[in-house]
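Q: A reviewer asked whether we had any structural model of the full assembly, not just the individual parts. We don't, so I'm hoping you can provide one. Inputs are below.
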Amino acid sequence: MIEIKNISQSYSRRGRKKTLKNINFVVPEKAITAMVGANGAGKSTLLGVMANIVPAQAGEVLLAGEDITKIKPSDVAKKIAFLRQTQQLSVKITINDLVEYGRFPHCGGRLQEIDKQKVEEALGYMNLLDLRDCYLNELSGGQRQRAFIAMVLAQDTPYIFLDEPLNNLDIKYSVEMMKTIRMMVDELGKTVIVVLHDINFAAAYANYVVAMKDGEIVQEGKQEEIISKGVLDTVFDHDFNIVRHDGRSVCLYFDYKL
Amino acid sequence: MEVTNKKPGFRNQMTAFSVMAALLILGVVLYIFARTYVKAWRLGVEMSRQAFDQILGRSVPALVGMAIAAVVIAVVSLLFQTMTESKVLTPSMIGFDAVFIGVQTMLLFFFGSTSVLFQNSYVNFLISAGAMVVISLLMYSAILRKSKNNMIFLLMFGLVLSGIVGNGARYLQTIMTNYEFFQLQAAIHVTVNNMNTSIIFLVLPIMVLLIVVILARHRTYNVLILGGAQAKGLGVAYEKELHRNLILVAIGMSVATALIGSLTFLGLLAVNLARMLLKTHRHLPLFIGSAVIAALALIMGQGVVELLEGAIPVTVIINLIGCSYLFYFILKENKKF
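A: Here is a predicted structure for the entire assembly that you could use as a starting point for your response.
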């Protein structure tokens, strides 16, 4: 269980401008939780703090009841896999090598049989077995993102945190990616938290939604409760129009009137 | 499902290593040959067994010094590139050389040429090394932590640091006495030909230890190429690692600079050539490859220089080639740079 207690965070030295204000939150298990909100709402920062990538300035993150900052980094990495927004790497690296690095918390880079097996499974799960010897920079955006997800899967953790995994992906690959994340929860029993920019992907695939604004959680709850005009209008400061399609909500946020 | 053990390009790597090793041996032979038989032939005298042994006795420390300094420079440069997530930076570009000269100048100026701080090679070495470690930590807290990946900023910092320290040193040099100035020249103009052999017994164990410490962690460095945040996600204590490695880099650079002077482009050249030849991002083969290439370049280069009766210093050749390579590299990778 991951529990966030009174987390506050600020970038400026005197703490005047807070990026996170007194956040309390319990991660829903074995479900997709989407974090949504405008730019600068603090979604990525919160995700980083939860995975102990960014040290918490005030408050604490409890992983199975234990303060996460007191746990050995490699032990945290056996429980939580964190994937940052993809960036260009400065070196050429093959998919296979990348996925093998997912095993680092378990084996420190010395791959044992079990590690090799997990790498095979992850590659197989993401349909990358044929591409394993390709270099990342030779791949399409979708394939590259799949490779990173495979690395996260190889890490074999109950919790998976993804920071804007749909960034730079076109529609086809975005949908594919969300379906994969859905499968990770439904088939592999993972707990996934994902920062999303497009509210409709949250509406379509997430179980829970955390809506953030100005460093605070405005509202959190089941997807059906959050994807509503009342909540979204406040969170995004915008006039939303929610329609129902095939039993799910779809947000229309385009303003036709000129 | 079949679990493959094959690593792509392994066969090529072995070939590359063999060729490099062979060339290295050739370089050593060339160096000794140039210093003995060629020299004797040029002077028109017979090479006696005794003279040969004598020259060999003098060549061995020079060879060891060159080899170990080259290895340290290569290893430290690769580590630095990994930590800064860049392929064109080397520690000397951040102004380490200038700091070495600056420290020497200040020691001499403020404590005098007879001071133990300046005269005792061990004390002197420890002070310069300490200063470089401090500078690198300052650099870490001031720059790397806040604007990592910001190469322009890092290079600017190096430029400004070199400028300030260099000019400060030059100012002190102009107002010091002639005698002190010559003393200083002798101390800061350590080159491959004029190696500071007095500290070799202090430096050798440090260097060997340093190389062992760095090589032992090659698996962690592999993960670091994914970037700080991602490495942390994989359980690397990144801040600690960054701190530690920058200190190692600073120690390595100060040791190498104190022993054979500054070789700005050797590390850059060796590391990138190793990358090109070995086609891998893994640190163990790259460490070994770049170390061998650096040693090869220095020893073979020095051998050629001896053959040419020292017409050009080997550092000039290496810097010329390294510099052209850097140009080529920047132009080629322009988009990424």
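A: Points you may want to mention in the reply: Chain A has one domain: 2-252. The radius of gyration of chain A is 19 Å.
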